[in-house]
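thread: overnight batch results

M.L. [08:02]
morning all. the overnight job finished for the chain we discussed friday. pasting input first so we're all looking at the same thing
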Amino acid sequence: MSNAEQDYYRESTGLPSISASGLNLTTLVNRQEDLTRLAAAIQELSPNQRQVIELRSQGQSFDQIGPRMNCSAESAKILWGQAVTRLLKLLDDEAT
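M.L. [08:03]
and the structure it wrote out:
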């Protein structure tokens, strides 16, 4: 199947066009590996840190997160900062 045929199929089924997006197989594999590493690092966080990361990834504000986690918005923000710092360290340690 040619790229044009694949693109037509993707467009007719609602799937994104790989050639139009500039993605290639190597890029897609690297992204999948990055997501796998990130998911593993997230599992290393405390339950509260995982929760605040999840809620932020859903677009919730710290004002919304605080009450859900039984803390202030400021405490939620601090917890999120600690979680992000820990994630970066875990990912950096894994890369070296």
